[in-house]
Amino acid sequence: MRRSFTGWSQTALHLLCFAIAVGHLYVAFDPIISELQRNAYHFAGFAFLASVYHPLITGKTRSRPMLAFDLTFGTLVALSAIYLPAAETPIYNRGVNLIWLDWIAIALCIAGGIELTRRMTGLVIPVLVILSLTYVGAWGAWIGGIFSFPGLSWETIAFRSVFGDDAMFGTIARISSTYVFLFIIFGAFLLRSGAGDFVINLARAVAGRLVGGPGIVAVIASGLTGTISGSAVANTA
User: Fold this and answer.
1) Which of 133, 134, 123, 140 is nearest to 167 (CA)?
2) Angle at CA 147, nearest 5°, toward 142 and 148?
3) Burial class of residue 142, CB neighbours in 10 A (0-12, 13-18, 19+)
4) Helix (H, G, I), strand (E, B) or coil at 145
5) What are phi and psi of 61, to 5 degrees?
6) Which of 5, 92, 150, 193 sees the fewest Cβ atoms within 10 Å?
């Protein structure tokens, strides 16, 4: 269940959401920061919002201690994500050796990603992530056959979980912080402005009473939306 806010707290969160949206739009057209920084900041912003809006325990939406915990947790995860891009070069300079602050930041980001995924989607994905990480770092070497894996050091696992194309701030985060986020903003604009309803109503007015009307309406509405979005994939979605 989502936590709701009123008064100044609601205003503050709305301003934060607006700032995150404007920041994404600005960076999309003028990339003043690196891709790693953009992806990490993207994760930081949404980790904080997810922690604030979705409580640790379902149903505890009005508990002040729970809110304090979620605010603290979200802030720590966000600060860890902001810290890690700045730590990348020093980590390489040390020969990919992590210091205690790196360990804490990476652990918080991984734990935050797992926990916030649990809050948003349930247990399936978090359990799979935990099984995968422990398989690579621990019990993969204990099983035989084709599933046997000699394992990696926990330092290597921690580093590769954050840095690299297939890591938390890699390709998936890049897609999320650019294409996905921009289409979410576009969809919200269509919803709030009434443009989406206008497209559907116009298609219904043109072909709603014809034979095969629903199919024709879908084609017309899809075509009109496609002229705006310019993306076949987004149009289909």
Assistant:
1) 133
2) 40
3) exposed
4) helix
5) -80, -20
6) 150
Per-residue pLDDT of the chain (237 residues; tens, 9 = 90+): 788 898 999 999 999 999 999 999 898 888 889 999 999 999 999 999 999 999 999 888 888 899 999 999 999 999 999 999 999 999 999 888 999 999 999 999 999 999 999 999 999 999 999 999 999 999 998 988 888 999 899 999 999 999 988 899 999 999 999 888 888 887 788 778 887 778 888 888 888 777 777 888 888 887 777 776 666 666 665
CA distance 114 to 106: 12
Q: What is the DSSP letter of 176?
A: I
As given in the structure block, the two tokens for residue 163 are 């840095």
Which amino acid is present at 137? G
Q: What is the DSSP letter of 78?
A: H
Q: Which two tokens stand for residue 37?
A: 């920084």
The Cα 203–Cα 198 span in angstroms is: 9
pTM given for the model? 0.83
Say how many residues make up the chain: 237
- Phi-psi sector, 20: left (phi>0), alpha (psi -120 to 50), beta: alpha
Distance from C-alpha of 40 to C-alpha of 14, rounded to nearest angstrom: 21
Domain spans in the chain, listed from the N-terminal domain onward: 7-193, 195-237
